[in-house]
Every structure is written in C-alpha cells, then in structure tokens.
Amino acid sequence: MAFVATPRYTVPGLTVQDARSLIEGLQQRLHALNDLHLTLKHVHWNVVGPHFIAVHEMLDPQVDRVRDMADDVAERMAALGGVAHGTPGALVEERTWKDYSVGRADAIAHLGALDLVYTGVIEDLRAAIRTVEDIDPATEDLLVEQLRDLEQFHWFVRAHLETAQGTLTTAEATTETEAARQAMDR
C-alpha cells in the first residue's frame, strides 16, 4: 500500500491516528471504485450479442454513479486530512485483485463475469464498513450509502443470470472466465 502519512489535522472529534486508519481504508475503496468504473466501461465497449443494447445502456448509469462514489471517497479522504492517490499506477500497484479478464464477448458472458466482480467489491466494502463503524459515523454512512447502490447494480446483473428455479447460473464459478462460460451454458 502507498505510504499514508499521518495527517497534520483532521475533522473535529477524531484523533489523527483514527483519521490515518480511515484514510488507509478509504484508499482501498478508492482503488476498488476506480477499477470498477473502468471495468464497467470496458464491458460497455466490448459487449456483443442479442442482449447488447440492454446491457450497453444498463451500464452507463452504473459507470456514472461509481465515478461519483470514487469522488465522494476521495473528498472524504481530503476532509480527513489525507491524500487520495487516484493515479492508474497507484491503482495497479496497490490493488489486491487481478485485472478483468474478459474481452469482447456476449452480453450474458460479461454479466456472468461482472457477477464475480460485484461480489468481490461488495464483500470488501462490507468489511470496510465493519472496520469504520466504531470510529467514524460519517465515513460509515458514506460507505453504507454506496453499498446500497452497489447491491442494486449487482441485483441488475444477477437478474440476467437467474434461472426460473431461482438459482444463479454462475453459482459455482470461482473466476471471471469460468463465470462467463457458465452464464453462456445455461
């Protein structure tokens, strides 16, 4: 992780050590959101097949909202006295996940892969919320608001992958490529 200096000041009611802890966690959220909005745009550009227009148009509002979430996280970091590292180099160097692995593909295949992407982002966000909940209610509130939107976007993706029996076609997948293949095999 990039060097996070202890801030010289922070918001009233927080110690600078608590602010540093929050900034460190928010930096990972910023990376996750920047990566997610780029991944969503990649899918938007590379989706093909009979569901092309539905998925293509579904993703743009998600991209816009996720970009807004990243901005909110970066601004919270600044308010806490920190520095938001939003460069591509910092993202690639510090992320804990692999790059999105599906290129030009059928809409359903991309949605299968996005199911795993959203799952990872949401699981990490829930862990971040548990970490901040006893330190700072303002940061917790920000993250909870984002969680609601991300879970709704995930639901939009999963609705395309659900069978009539109520199971997900990607339920057994552990990689994006595998999820894409399983989604296509339904």
From TrEMBL:
Ferritin/DPS domain segment(s): 23-164
Domain of life according to the entry: Bacteria
GO molecular function per UniProt: ferric iron binding; oxidoreductase activity, acting on metal ions
Pfam families associated with the record: Ferritin
SUPFAM superfamilies according to UniProt: Ferritin-like
Family classification: Belongs to the Dps family.
NCBIfam families: PRK09448.1
Name of the protein in its database record: DNA starvation/stationary phase protection protein
Organism taxonomic ancestry: Bacteria, Bacillati, Actinomycetota, Actinomycetes, Kitasatosporales
